[in-house]
C-alpha cells in the first residue's frame, strides 16, 4: 500500500491497514422479503479486512438487497450481522428481534456506499459534495474536511474540478467524485452497487482503475458488479447469487474457469 493512490489508509481509522484478514462483518442466515417476494433466502457472508468481495448473479437475484443490508439501508427479516468495528465497538444485530435505530445507524456508520448513479447534489460543486458528509454528519471542521477532500480529489485526478458542478463532468468523472465522497467519510468498508453499469463503455475503465487502486491499497470492499474481468482481477472472493441464495462462492480464478454448479456455468457462459 502506497501513499499515492486515492485511498487514505493512513487516516486515523486506518481502514485497510489494521488487522488485515480479520473479520469485519460476519453475516449469517439473512432473509428478506418484500411482500410475497422472498428476495434473500438465508445468506452467509464473511467480509474480512483488506479483502474484496464481488457479488455477481442475474438481475433480481438479491445482490443489491444484500449490499444494502450490510449498511442498514435494507433491514432483513431474520439473520444476524456481527460487525467487529474498531476495538470496543463490536455490534451484534439479530434481525429476528427488533433492531433499534441506534444499532442500524451504528452499522451504517461503518461503511460508505457508491451507487449505480453517482447521487451527487446537482446544485453543489464537487468540493461541496465531498465535504457535505464529513461536515454535516460527522461534525468535522470544514477546513479539515476541505483539506482532506482536496487530497482525495487530487488522487483521482479531479483536483482541477473542485468548483465544477456535477452536470459539467463526464459520467466517469461524476462516478469518481462519488467514490471520493465515500472515501471522505473514512469508512471501514466501501460498498459499490454496480458503479459502472450506468456509464458509457469508454468511461468504465477509469472508474474500475480507481477501484483497483483502492483494493491494492487495502480497502475492504464489497462490490456488486457485472464486470467479470474486474472481479477476476481484483476480488479475493466471488459470491454467485441466484434467487436469493449463494449458489457458489470462492476464488474467482477457480470459479470462472471451473464452476462447480451448473447454474454458475450457465450464468458465466452468457457473460464471459
Ligand atoms: P439484484 O441486485 O440482484 O438485481 P435486487 O436486490 O435489486 O436484485 O432485487 C431483488 C428482488 O427484490 C427484485 O425482485 C426486486 O424487484 C425486489 N426489490 C428490491 N428492492 C425492493 C423494494 N425496495 N421494494 C420492493 N421490492 C424490491
UniProtKB/TrEMBL annotation:
InterPro entries: AAA+_ATPase (IPR003593), ABC_ATPase_HisP-typ (IPR030679), ABC_transporter-like_ATP-bd (IPR003439), ABC_transporter-like_CS (IPR017871), MetN_ABC_transporter-like (IPR050086), P-loop_NTPase (IPR027417). The keyword Heme does not apply. Its main location: membrane. Keywords: ATP-binding, Cell membrane, Membrane, Nucleotide-binding, Transport. One of its GO terms (molecular function) is ATP binding. The keyword Cytoplasm does not apply. Residues 1-24 are annotated as: Disordered. Residues 25-268 form the ABC transporter domain. It is found in: Cell membrane. It is a peripheral membrane protein. PANTHER family: AMINO ACID IMPORT ATP-BINDING PROTEIN, L-CYSTINE IMPORT ATP-BINDING PROTEIN TCYN. This is Cystine ABC transporter ATP-binding protein TcyC. The gene is tcyC.
Amino acid at each position: 500500500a502506497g501513499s499515492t493512490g486515492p485511498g487514505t489508509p493512513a487516516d486515523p481509522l486506518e481502514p485497510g491497514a489494521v488487522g488485515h484478514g480479520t473479520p469485519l462483518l460476519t453475516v449469517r442466515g439473512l432473509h428478506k422479503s418484500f411482500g410475497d417476494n422472498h428476495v434473500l433466502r438465508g445468506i452467509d457472508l464473511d467480509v474480512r479486512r483488506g479483502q474484496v468481495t464481488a457479488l455477481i448473479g442475474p438481475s433480481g437475484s438479491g445482490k443489491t438487497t444484500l449490499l444494502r443490508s450490510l449498511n442498514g439501508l435494507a433491514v432483513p427479516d431474520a439473520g444476524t450481522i456481527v460487525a467487529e468495528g474498531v476495538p470496543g465497538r463490536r455490534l451484534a444485530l439479530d434481525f429476528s428481534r427488533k433492531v433499534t435505530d441506534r444499532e442500524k445507524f451504528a452499522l451504517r456508520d461503518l461503511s460508505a456506499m457508491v451507487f449505480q448513479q453517482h447521487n451527487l447534489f446537482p446544485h453543489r460543486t464537487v468540493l461541496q459534495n465531498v465535504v457535505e458528509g464529513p461536515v454535516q454528519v460527522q461534525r468535522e471542521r470544514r477546513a479539515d474536511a476541505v483539506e482532506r477532500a482536496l487530497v482525495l480529489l487530487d488522487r483521482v485526478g479531479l483536483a482541477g474540478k473542485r468548483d465544477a458542478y456535477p452536470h459539467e463532468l463526464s459520467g466517469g468523472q461524476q462516478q469518481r467524485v462519488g467514490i471520493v465522497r465515500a472515501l471522505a467519510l473514512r469508512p471501514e468498508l466501501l460498498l459499490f452497487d454496480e458503479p459502472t453499469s450506468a456509464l458509457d463503455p469508454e468511461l468504465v475503465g477509469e472508474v474500475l482503475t480507481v477501484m483497483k487502486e483502492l483494493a491494492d491499497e487495502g480497502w475492504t470492499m464489497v462490490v456488486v458488479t457485472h464486470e467479470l474481468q474486474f472481479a477476476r482481477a481484483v476480488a479475493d472472493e466471488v459470491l454467485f447469487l441466484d434467487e436469493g441464495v449463494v449458489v457458489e462462492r470462492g476464488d474467482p480464478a477457480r470459479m470462472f474457469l471451473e464452476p462447480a454448479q451448473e447454474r454458475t456455468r450457465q450464468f458465466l457462459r452468457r457473460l464471459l
